[in-house]
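Review box. Two proteins, two foldings.
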Amino acid sequence: MSIDRRHFLTAAAAGCGLGLHGLASQAQTGHAHPPLPEAKSSADPYARLQGGTPHHLTADQESQRSFDSPAPKGPLGRWIGRAALPIPRSEMAWATELGGRLHVIGGYGEGRVDRGYHHVYDPKTDRWYDAAALPRGANHVAVASLEGRIYAFGGFLEQNRNPDHNAYVYDPALNSWSPIAPLPRPRGAAAAIALEGKIHLIGGASSPTSERASVGWHEVYDPKTDSWSLRKALPGARDHVGSAVHQGRIHIIGGRFNTFEYNTGLHHVYLSDRDTWELRSPLPTPRSGHGLVAYRGRFFAMGGEGGIINKPGQQTVFGQMESYDPLSDSWQSHAPMPTPRHAVGAVAIGDFIYVAGGGAVLGGSVQSAIHEAFTLS
């Protein structure tokens, strides 16, 4: 860690009468966190990016919705409506869970694409709260929780392009973000996965802005040293992937090659002890911008998008809910999302999967405040 960043964090801890270890311990136990102001749910389910104005989906836009999965049927499960997001938004981080709450960070909203929004949902009260915003707003920021803190990496400063190299850590005990070592190479729409005390940043898209090409980069951030190291690159460079961990192995599922016109169902697993990748059974419905969470020993993939902008009949927003069993390397399908969306904030808390916000149509023109939860109970 650089002297400046270490001094900043140490000074903040000292001001609270805690060492760095004390801050981390306090964050993990969930005690003494500053109360967050409540954020009322949006009265409008959708908003247009252009102008940030309320929007009602047209028949053509609703026709983009897709529900049918080719995967064998599994337990149906059920969806229930939850408190809507405070602001219709999309293209934020894929979201993360911390202390039993859902954190949704960055993205598009209110007519801009470089928002630093940080909304926090408490499933116990079915309420949203405002937390400290990112120091610099961006879309497609990668986030992950580790040892009581949230880490945010990169993102785009323009609409799905112009990658950023900034990185930050959020301390819930202080409700504040601090800068950490920047990304070795700027990128957005990457996957951030915590494993063995470090965070793996995999895939995404980078510069030049005019090309916005997918990358297979695999870089690892170590919070203890505030430094980055390289690992074996992801085979098949892509962005907007789904990511999850099972038994110490990282799964990267689906995504796109440069654009949602070239979605893939590719499924790779990273073996950290051998620094190598292996193929697994592909996602039955190829898509990108989908959520992926670990729930009941399986990975559940929901939402996503694909197709060609301004091509009626070739634009799709996916509602499919498909789950993967890492033990049998097989997929099955479940009750689809009532409201298909992409670039959602999705996490599992308790016996529910919470899926908040996201794009309601192909691309970033319409944001949603819709929030729905899935359970197999």
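Next protein.
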Amino acid sequence: MNMYIFKTSIEPQDIRIVNSILRAIIPSCIWTFDLEDCDRILRIKSNKNINKLVCFHLKIDGFQCEELQ
């Protein structure tokens, strides 16, 4: 399983919306948020390459999202 780490603009009040987005596009993945980090980290464990898909959908909904290497 691969770990993908994203820098985002997600705020605590956005968690419900982002969870809904992620459930719709990658339902079988496991994700966690670290919103206390200055980069508002989103971590996703997946067997598939989902980095572009996640960034695309979060950006459509108005969030900043970029994968960290």
